[in-house]
What we know:
8% of the residues lie in helices and 21% in strands. It is mostly beta strands. The chain is globular and about 35 Å long.
Amino acid sequence: xxxxxxxxxxxxxxxxxxxxxxxxxxxxxxxxxxxxxxxxxxxxxxxxxxxxxxxxxxxxxxxxxxxxxxxxxxxxxxxxxxxxxxxxxxxxxxxxxxxxxx
Length: 102
C-alpha cells in the first residue's frame, strides 16, 4: 500500500487566486466572509468567523482521469503560511465533518 501524504495547495497557486486568477472553470474566485470553520486549502487550518475568504473551483490534478474531481475549495483571502507536506493528518481533519479524497 502507498503511504498517505497530505499536500496543501502550492503557494504560487494560492497567491494567483488571491490576485484574481481564474479557477478551474475560468471564473474569478468569489470573495466572501467566513461563517467560521471553513477549511483553507493552503494552510489546512480553519478560516475563522468573520475572516475574508475565497471560494473557487479547484482540480489539483494535472490531467483528467476518473478520480480528478473538481470541487469547491476555500482559501484565506489574506496570505497564510502553507502547511508543510506531511504524512500526519492535519489537525483540521480530525473532525468527522470532513471527507478526505485522494
